[in-house]
Sequence to fold (754 residues):
Amino acid sequence: MNWWEALGLPVQLVLAEEEVEKAFQQKSAGAHPDAGGEQGEFECLREAHDGLRDDFRRLDAWLRFHGQEIAHSGVITPAVGEMFTRVSVVTGGVDEWLERQGQTSSGLGKALWQKEGFRWKQQLEDLLEELAEWQQRLQDEFTNAEQAGVVGDYEPALALRSELGFLRKWKLQLKERFGRIWQGLV
Amino acid sequence: MSDELIVGIDLGTTNSAIGVVESGFPILLADGEGSRLTPSAVWYGEEGQVEVGFSARRRRGLGGVVTSVKRLMGTGEKAASRSPEEVSAEILKTLKAVAEARLEQTVSRAVITVPAYFNEGQRGATQRAGELAGLEVVRLLSEPTAAALAYGLDKLGEEKKVAVYDLGGGTFDVSILELRAGHFEVLATAGDTRLGGDDFDEAILVKVGIDLKKLDEAERGRALEEAERVKFVLSEQDEAIFRLPFFREEGIERTITRVEFETEIESLLKKTEACCRRALADVDLRPEEIEAVVLAGGSTRVPAVRNRVERIFGRAVEEGVDPDETVGLGAAIQAGILSGAVREVVLLDVTPLSLGIETVGGLMNVLIPRNTTIPCKAGELFTNAVAGQTVMKIRVLQGERELAKDNWELGQIEVPFQAVGKGQARVGVQFSLNASGLLEVLTRDTATNEDTILSIESSAVDVADTQVEHMVSESVDHAFSDMSARVFVEARLKAEELLAALEPALVDFGTVLSEEDLLKVREAEQTVRTQLQDEAQSGSLLKAAVEELDDATEQLAALIVEKAMVGE
Fold:
């Protein structure tokens, strides 16, 4: 399915969330089964909406639309390598902390662990913030990548895709911990 | 869409209600006694009689009465030797009769609410209960979403983000929604299907030293009733007297303060807070970005609950919503949307739990992640792992854990195909989740285009948490033939943990404690050390000493937590 076509938009890489939202609302009025829509119609529109709102998936679909082969291996930049390590240190640390906190049964024992817990929570927040800034920088490069694509150079877009892929995975991992760490905090 | 009447039903743990939309407004229908709430209690007499509601609840403790059956939905456990579906169907039949009497017409279609966090098995059981009661269940609606509908129906022009905190008799849900131009869109939901007001009642019993497991049915009924009464009083007053005359010979009479009650339920409130934080994290929102907080469920009348909610979201909760009626009203609105009686409103709900299948290495491969808008479809192509394989087994899973075995298994499909070389067979798996959150799985062998459909019949595969807990505690029971030895080992672990924590805590905070408190801590510590050394190794004495020390260090623990929170 061509997501852009489904929502009545031209195929474009640079696409603001609000534009997707507006197109979805226009198209989906009356498409929901509860509002008398046909079976499957709403699901398709929703899939297009979710896909286009996600930077990574939009970039991926745009590359495929232009017939680009996506390689699943390649060279990673030093910045990616460094962040890879930092993310695994924090996720591993949080997992370990949660496990130990779960085994502690006395009030005093739990209290003593709180300090470390809040430290991990802070680290999660800082790292998530850093990733968000990184993601913003990559988004800002979408315009250039799209222009390069017009003249047949898809390298910048392919490089962006690989970095965004990592960012997305880390964000999920960190957010999962951020959601869970509250179980151990007061 | 049809203009035929559809009713909305709140099938609650403690109370149930039925409603419809009349002239554009949702209303709840009152029963013969004039009550809009019907207790979810069913009494089965020895001669086959069945009574539902107030009359059944009044018989609690006399045998044959089932309450809180919702907690058993989808578990395969029985109540009064009947399935939870059958018992729930009795409640639904009664509500149906109430509506038919009031509306003077036959009622055959309904929207029934379920906790947002109900899994496939629990939803399926609710649907079957409706069918047993002679109702076509046109939609299962999440309770917090229903509450949001009731809250937002007169605010269709507004655009805001709303959190619904729904703590009922037996279940807890939190949902984050966005209201915009008649669209009610659920962004995220989290919860616990085994946490509610019933646990508050049990907390009161723990405080007065009653062990529910040791009581017979009549005693349980009396004890729970009194605990519930005390809970209600404590919502209004600072203390209440728990009184059970002639109970186990001597009777019980004990004053419980609100502070004691709040300490006892603290861990439960903490669990709900963790859910709220997770839901917010799922949608990347900070608590201050929520513009309205709506309460639902009778347990939100407890002041400590309300305070906690206001603290989590940093704002006052919305007033003017009756937490007992709001879910039923929301169900009526959704029924109105489906029948065409309410227009310009569309509800977009999400699936609370991820759905996927097991892949190589026993891992869960998620096809539909949690918080995906429903209805939705998702599919993937799979291939054979070995040459000459003729069948592929697909296990359908629901849950958030990485390992397949830690999630609920909803069912299995075996897809046969022609033997070919490794990686050459192609089997497509498609999940489709309808607007009620019910799943259908379709598999297709792409070589032959042959389809297999799995409909989820979950009651048999779902093992209740309580059952698992029971199994675990049983195996522990057997391992320690001598109870005292077991108690001693457990207490020793806790003692060691406490003693290790004590020294560093006293170094940092010892000076803050009053001399009297410090002395108390030291004395308690000494008693623990003495009991640890004692040759008799008495489990009960060590346990008592450890509890004493745990209590004595409570203030110390609070100080440490306070300091940790401000990041010092």
Remarks:
- Residues 3-53 of chain A form a domain with the Helix Hairpins fold (CATH 1.10.287).
- The radius of gyration of chain A is 21 Å.
